[in-house]
């Protein structure tokens, strides 16, 4: 995913079409005096609709759409002819897209299935023609309903990646290296902080043709929930992961301390994240011998399953996949 191509947030003005006016028309046929009302209904205004598309992974195609405007419905005509409905506008979005009201920040709905369609902004109803208003005491109504106005509102679309496992860790914890080692993903890897600027997805092959999806989230730093670093912008992607794989390098000053800092950032952002299953991977363990690993076990949190791994030497990567898959199907 190139930095310029991954867009997970867009804001635009959504305006549905107005309904067409009903017709106040009377039959005018030769040899048919006082033919009576026959005004048709107005057409419905066009909707703005979101449709899920499993082939999309970014909101890039909507980045420059600042105004999305549907067609108005046509007015009704004589002979009880209904006006044409306004054309709907369908916006295709990746799975995991959440629609919000830009002013209230209220979540409207989420697109989670391929082909799923939800009306974002409803078009105005068409007005009724005068044919609907005739009665025994009012046989020649000279009025019809106007169409309803369309709705204009500002909408925010946010993409939350749908993955089975989300990698959580500080910059340079080895998250991108792990993803590249066990999947076909090719994230940028460097020896400096914040190499990962956008989330990366990889499909990890498992036994018997099974697989799971892993997401590499940009590194979190202390204070990310208050807006420091890149973590805040991408913490929302973790909300859609089934498992959180915490990664802490073996050369960390304190594994327990780093783990609790990461845990606190998740809690500050969304306390519900603490309800997800957690696994701890202590990375870069190719630098350790058995004696050092044994000594470091006292600095490992007690409430989480853990493994010493190395993406470079492939140490314990198969065991890690076993642990992850067991947690997913549990």
Describe this structure in words.
The protein is 15% helix and 25% strand. The protein has five helices and 14 strands. It has helices spanning 175-182, 231-238, 255-269, 290-296, 317-329, and strands at residues 9-15, 48-52, 67-69, 89-93, 97-101, 107-111, 117-121, 152-159, 163-169, 200-205, 211-216, 241-249, 277-283, 306-308. The strands form three sheets. Strands 10-11-9-12-13-14 form a six-stranded mixed β-sheet, sandwiched between helices. A five-stranded mixed β-sheet has the order 3-1-8-5-6, with no helix packed on it. The chain has a three-stranded mixed β-sheet with strand order 4-2-7, with no helix packed on it. The model has no long low-confidence stretch (mean pLDDT 85).
Topology readout:
Blueprint lengths: L8 E7 L32 E5 L14 E3 L19 E5 L3 E5 L5 E5 L5 E5 L30 E8 L3 E7 L5 H8 L17 E6 L5 E6 L14 H8 L2 E9 L5 H15 L7 E7 L6 H7 L9 E3 L8 H13 L1
Parallel strand pairs: 1-3, 2-4, 9-11, 9-12, 12-13, 13-14
Antiparallel strand pairs: 1-8, 2-7, 5-6, 5-8, 10-11
Compact description:
The protein contains 5 helices and 14 strands.
Descriptive terms for the model:
330 residues, five-stranded mixed β-sheet, alpha/beta
Low-confidence stretches: none
Rounded radius of gyration (Å): 29 Å
Strand order of the largest sheet: 10-11-9-12-13-14
Average residue-wise pLDDT: 85
Tell me the series of helices and strands, N- to C-terminal.
Answer: EEEEEEEEEHEEHEHEHEH
* Portion in strands: 15-25%
The main β sheet shows up as: 6 strands, mixed
Number of strands: 14
Distance between the termini: 31 Å
- Helical amount among residues, as a percent range? 10-25%
Q: Can you tell me the overall shape?
A: rod-shaped
- Coarse structural class: alpha/beta
Our count of helices gives 5
């Amino acid at each position: 995913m190139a930095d310029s191509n991954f867009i997970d947030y867009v804001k635009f003005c959504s305006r549905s079409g107005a309904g067409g006016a009903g017709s106040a028309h009377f039959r005018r046929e030769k040899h048919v005096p006082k033919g009576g009302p026959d005004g048709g209904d107005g057409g419905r205004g066009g909707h703005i609709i979101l449709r899920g598309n499993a082939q999309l992974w970014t909101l890039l195609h909507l980045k420059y759409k600042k105004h999305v405007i549907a067609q108005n419905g046509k007015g009704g005509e004589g002979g009880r002819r209904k006006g044409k409905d306004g054309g709907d506008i369908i916006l295709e979005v990746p799975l995991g897209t959440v629609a919000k009201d830009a002013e209230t920040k209220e979540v409207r709905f989420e697109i989670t299935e391929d082909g799923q369609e939800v009306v974002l902004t409803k078009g105005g109803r068409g007005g009724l023609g005068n044919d609907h208003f005739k009665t025994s005491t009012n046989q020649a109504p000279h009025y019809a309903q106007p169409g309803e106005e369309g709705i204009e509102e500002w909408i925010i679309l946010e993409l939350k990646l749908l993955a089975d496992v989300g990698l959580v860790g500080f910059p340079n914890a080895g998250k991108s290296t792990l993803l590249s080692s066990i999947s076909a993903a090719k994230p940028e890897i460097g020896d400096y902080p914040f190499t990962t600027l956008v989330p990366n997805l990889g499909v990890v092959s498992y036994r018997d043709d099974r697989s799971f999806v892993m997401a590499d989230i940009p590194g979190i730093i202390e204070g990310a929930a208050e807006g420091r670093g890149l973590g805040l912008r991408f913490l929302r992607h973790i909300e859609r992961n089934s498992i959180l794989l915490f990664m802490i390098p073996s050369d960390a000053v304190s594994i327990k301390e780093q783990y609790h800092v990461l845990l606190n950032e998740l809690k500050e952002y969304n306390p519900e994240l603490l309800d997800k299953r957690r696994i701890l991977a202590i990375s870069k363990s190719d630098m350790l011998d058995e004696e050092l690993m044994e000594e470091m076990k006292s600095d490992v949190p007690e409430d989480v399953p853990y493994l010493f791994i190395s993406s470079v030497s492939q140490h314990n990567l198969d065991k890690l996949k076993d642990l992850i898959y067991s947690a997913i199907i549990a």
